[in-house]
Amino acid sequence: MWFEELPERCPPTDAKIPSGQEYFRLIENGSIESDDFISHRKIWPNKAFNVSECRARSVSVYSGIEECRAIKKLPMHKKKKIAKVILNQGDGYIKQTGQNKEHYSWWRTQSFNYETSTALVA
Amino acid sequence: MKRIKPESVLLFYDYPQVFIAKDIVDLKYACMAIAEDEAGPIYLCTPISKKRHDKLVTSKIDLKEIYEKPEVGEFYKSIFSEDEDSLIIEKEFYNVCPSDYLPEEGLFFDNYDEVASKALEENTTVSYASLSPAEAIDSPRIRTSKLSEFLILYQNSIKYLTKLSAKEIKKSIPKNETPFSTDVFGFSYGSFTVQIRSSYDGDLLGDNALLSTAFAKLNMFLALTSNANEAIEYLRSVKGHTASSLIKLLEFMSNNSCPMKHQWASPSMGQSQSIKVELPHIHELVELCRQRDDLTKEKLELTGRFISANSKTGSWTLETDDKETFTGTVSPESDVTLHGIIIEKQKYKVSCEEKIEVILGTSKEVKQFYITTQPRLHNK
After folding, report:
1. Between A2 and B202, whose confidence is greater?
2. Which of A66, B69, B190, B241 has a Cα at 20 to 30 A from A111?
3. Range of the domain at B121
4. Are residues B224 and B127 in the same domain?
5. What b/e sequence results for B195-206 when a residue is b if at least 16 CB atoms lie within 10 Å of its CB, and e otherwise?
6. Is B9 part of the contact surface with chain A (CB cutoff 8 Å)?
7. Tell me, what CATH number does A95's domain have?
8. Reduced to 3 states, what is the DSSP secondary structure of residue B245?
9. B90 touches A at CB < 8 Å
């Protein structure tokens, strides 16, 4: 069911099932791929980034496009595109995490269809 | 090989993109992700002073200024070490940031949560109590006696809220353990802010669950102070020593005209929880509490033998079966008499009310016991 293997008690109990909300995420190239929605734990299995194992296996999305625009001010992200992602029931669980109120951790399911649920917006 | 440890994350996207770290001599570094390779993200770090750090985290300067006009012309490339929470840094040969690495203008940070960051840094539950007495209006200062009184009353409230939390989850706290114990680890601006942390390091999750629950309960109660009836209802539900300790904290704020902001976080929370109490609400609530003697009394049943009993003064001493000695008086509101009490030879069952007074200065607790109903013979 989960796109990536998750530890026990993950997602946390206060994570919510999305219901059609709009989120934003950076996309590596001009076209949206499945690999644009994987966690850092999947890319670097042995890296610890001072976050819990559960959060390490989530994908960051923002509820506002301006937050993605802010990240694009960093030199390594400036060429990336911004995609709108509509998350529906069945696409996983989502939880606001971190100090930025618009940052969400998303635990993706296998049934999430990036081809029908996303669109490039900037 | 030099190492730095992340202290606070300013921008998180899949992993920390911009963060503040410090080395073993507490020198701070601003770090920004500049590339990724098969080993992970690569960061460019530059040392920053406390003053500049404060400007960065409060949106007074943007990230570009940090790298474009570094305080010292030193730059380090850095990667997260494997399975550890620190980074290895290596000095670069340049003393001006390469233009390819410069962030664009206008990347400001205003989501910095100092309390949540401190919880991560200290790896335990922390709280900030910001007091606003009259003397703190123009500068961050407070009378020594006032601060000492606050700390004793605050610690006492946390102790009873911790015990209440343990009781609610049916967990007993062993006599030699004090999960409610806190240490002051600093003071900072913002009225007069006392920085408090658990006396103990957190568990594997960096948490001290009982203390965290006690802080959450304190904030919940302080939030209720804006509605006197709800606050009284809460005090009535917890009653006894817990209610008494919370009322004393309110009395401190009322008597010293000292409103308070209380903020706390554990390392796993990510962000702090904060509550600010307003003085007019506190004055009103304290007045109501003064009319409610029933809130602070703790009922107690003792079984044992009287060692002494004075029918004239009403004073008595009783030793229980497990050799614990209790001393007190007859409740002035009762008709209880100690006349005819049999000393030592007869066992009694006694209903008491217990009141605890905290001696300010030593923070010692004096327990006072009042017999409320006539002692019953106990022949088992």
Report:
1. A2
2. A66
3. 115-295
4. yes
5. bbbbebebeeeb
6. yes
7. 3.20.170
8. helix
9. no
The chain B residue lying nearest A40, using CA atoms, is B14
- Residue B242 makes CB contacts below 8 A (sequence gap 6+) with B157, B160, B161, B163, B164
Distance CA A40, CA B195 (A): 34
Residues B90 and B139 reside in one and the same domain: no
Measure in Å the smallest separation between the Cα of A6 and chain B Cα atoms.
Answer: 16
pTM for the model stands at 0.65
Query: Chain A to chain B, count of Cβ pairs less than 8 Å apart?
Result: 83
Looking at beta carbons, which residues of chain A come within 8 Å of B33? 74, 76
Q: Given this model, what pLDDT does residue B84 score? A: 66
Closest-CA residue in chain A for B37?
A44
Is residue B139 domain-shared with residue B257, that is, in the same domain?
A: yes
Q: Map residue A50 onto helix, strand or coil.
A: coil
Per CB-CB distance under 8 Å, the chain A contacts of B268 are: 52
The residues near B155 (Cβ < 8 Å, ≥ 6 apart) are B180, B181, B182, B363
Task: Map residue B360 onto helix, strand or coil.
Answer: coil
Last residue of a domain, one of B96, B112, B128: B112
Nearest CB partner across the interface for A71, out of B13, B81, B100: B13
* pLDDT tens-place string over residues A61-114: 999 999 999 999 999 999 999 999 999 999 999 999 887 889 999 999 999 999
Q: Structurally, how many domains does chain A consist of?
A: 1
The verdict on a CB contact (< 8 Å) between B270 and A74 is: no
Distance from the B352 Cα atom to the nearest Cα atom in chain A, whole angstroms: 44
Give the count of domains, chain B.
Answer: 3
B14, B17, B43, B57: best to mutate for the A interface, most A CBs within 10 A: B14
Q: What is the pLDDT of residue B363?
A: 60
The answer to whether B366 touches B359, Cβ cutoff 8 Å, is yes
Which CATH number belongs to the domain containing residue B344 in this structure? 2.40.50.320
Q: Is B97 helix (H, G, I), strand (E, B) or coil?
A: coil
Residue A24, pLDDT score: 97
In a domain, A115, yes or no: yes
- The SS3 assignment for A46 reads coil
- Structure letter (DSSP) for residue B111: -
User: What's the residue count for chain A?
Assistant: 122
Please, what are the averages of pLDDT over each run of 10 residues along chain B (380 residues)?
87 93 92 92 94 88 96 93 80 95 93 82 88 81 90 94 91 86 82 89 67 95 94 90 92 93 87 91 92 80 93 93 90 89 93 78 74 87
Tell me how close the Cα of A116 comes to any Cα of chain B, in angstroms.
23
